[in-house]
Amino acid sequence: MQAGFALFAAGLIRAKNSLSLLAGSFIDVCLGTLIFYVFGYALMFGDGGALNHLVGAEGFFLLGARDLHRGRPVEAGWLFHATFCAAAATICAGAMAGRLRFSAYLLLTAWICGVVYPVAGHWNW
Prior knowledge:
Blueprint: H1 2-12, H2 15-45, H3 74-96, H4 102-124
Helix pairs in contact: 1-2, 1-3, 2-3, 2-4, 3-4
């Protein structure tokens, strides 16, 4: 998905911005999966106690994470959702191509993968 979104968006923007977009798509996978591993999965699938309707609050670094995937390992569920989390950030990369500095784009990726995707996923799943 990452390669497809990156190449599609690179074909729609000015050539001078395409390298930055491709680097951003690569960073989405690296940074996004790391952030989703550290606390995104916990916010999405953790039991939040009194905060359960807003976010989860257990399972950081996948330690003590609950198996919501009906017999599959927690790591398999994490990998599935980490790929879609990174894809969500890459879709935003195409929309912001040529409009943000790379450092601001890294903050946007961290925000999407660390807060937006997990919280929206918690509310829906």
